[in-house]
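Give me structure tokens for this 71-residue protein.
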Amino acid sequence: TRTSLPPPRLQLMRDTYEATGLVVLRNTGSTDTATLAQFVHPGQLILVCDIGGGTTDLTLIRVRPAGDAGD
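Here you go.
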């Protein structure tokens, strides 16, 4: 995985996330359901951050049990 941040700045960013209780996972490169299920569980809130070269996209996801139709 390429990053434009120098290693000390990247580590500072990770340390900040962890200090606030966030778990930092690196991109596994897989969208396979079985692979993703190892990391997420019903009830969790997941913040997905895509920090690019000039844009930042944030998505907040609430994980629901399989078959849950939602609200």
